[in-house]
Amino acid sequence: MDRRKKVKKRPFYEIFCRASLYIMKHHLHPTDLLKLGEEGLRKVSLENKLKLRQTTIECLLDLAQNSISQPKAQLTEEQLLLSLAIERLELLEKQIRILEDKIEDIFLQTDGAIILSVPGVGVVTGAELYAEMDDPSKFDHAGQLIKMAGTNPIVKQSGDRQPWHYAVSKQGRKSFRAAVFNVGRSLSINNPEMKVKYEALKERGKHAKQAYIALGNRMIRLAFAMIKKQTLYQTTHSDYTLRNQLQKKLQPKNIERFYAKFISDPDVHIA
Q: What angle do CA 263, 194, 223 make, to 5 degrees?
C-alpha cells in the first residue's frame, strides 16, 4: 500500500488573487477551461493582464480534465451567487484602495511619516503606530509609550533568585498593543536587521508572538527617536536605499512630498 502523502495541486498561490478571481468569475466550470485550452488561456491571460504562468495553465487544465463537477447547466444558481460575491469583494477592495490612498496623503502631512524610511514599516502599519503613539513630544522617553501600550515586560522575582521577565503587562491600550504586534511581525519578515534579531529571540526560546512584541517595542524606541529628532533610518545594510523603500510604499507624487518634507539637502536628486 502506498502511504505517501498525496500532493494537492494549487494553480494559484493565493485563492483571491487577480487571476483566480477572473477565472472564477468568467470561466469557472471545468468545461469552460477545457474549451479554452492552452492557447485560449494564454490569450485570456494576455488580454486581461493575468500573468498566468505555463505551469499554472497546465495545472488548471489538468484539474479541469479530472474534475468530478456536476454539469454546468445544473450549477447556474451557484455560479450566479459566486459571481455576485466576487463583485462585492472587488468593490470592497476598491474602497480599501481609496482609503489607503487617503491614509497615505494624510500620513505624509505628519512628522511621523519619517518612519516610512524603515524597511518593514508600510503606510498602514506606520500610520497606525504613529496614531497610537499620540504626540511623542508629550513624553520624556520611549519607555512611557511602551507602558502605554501595555507591552512592557512584567518582572518577577522569588526570594533570592534572579529576577526574570514573565510576560507583558497588558495594562495599556489594546489597540496600541495590536499595532505594536503587527509592526513587529512585519519587521521580522521585511527588515533584514530585525529579522536577525527575531531569529536570535527564537533561538533563546521565545515564541513567535513574544518575538513580535519585542521587535514592536524596538520599533517604538526607534520611531520615538526618529520622530523627535527628525532623522531618517540609519543602516549599514548593503541592499538598503531610501528611494527603493519609498517606491515600495508611496505613490510617485508622495515620494516627492517625502523628500521635500524630510530631506533638507537641495542637492538630493529625485528621479
A: 40
Picking from 81, 12, 68, 78, the residue whose alpha carbon sits closest to that of residue 45 is 12
State what percent of residues in the chain have pLDDT above 70. 90
Q: What is the DSSP letter of 71?
A: P
**Contact between residue 69 and residue 84 where contact means Cβ atoms under 8 Å apart:** no
Residues 133, 263 contacting (CB under 8 angstroms): no
pLDDT digits (tens, 9 = 90+) for 23-59: 999 998 999 999 999 999 999 999 999 999 999 999 9
Measuring CA to CA, how many Å separate 33 from each of 29, 97, 137?
A: 7, 31, 60
Q: C-alpha angle with apex 88: 103 to 129, nearest 5 degrees?
A: 25
**Measured torsion, CA atoms of residues 52, 124, 250, 197, in degrees rounded to the nearest 10:** -90
Beta bridge partners of 156: 164
Q: What DSSP line would sit under 197-251, residue for residue?
A: HHHHHHHTT--HHHHHHHHHHHHHHHHHHHHHHT-------TT--HHHHHHHHS-
CA dist., res. 206 & res. 176, Å (int): 21
Q: Which of 164, 136, 118, 160 is nearest to 258 (CA)?
A: 118
Report CA 222 to chain centroid distance, whole Å.
20
What is the full DSSP assignment across 93-148?
Answer: HHHHHHHHHHHHHHHTTSGGGGGGGSTT--HHHHHHHHHHH--GGG-SSHHHHHHH
Residue 112 clears pLDDT 60, i.e. is over it: yes
| Average pLDDT over every residue of 66-82 | 92
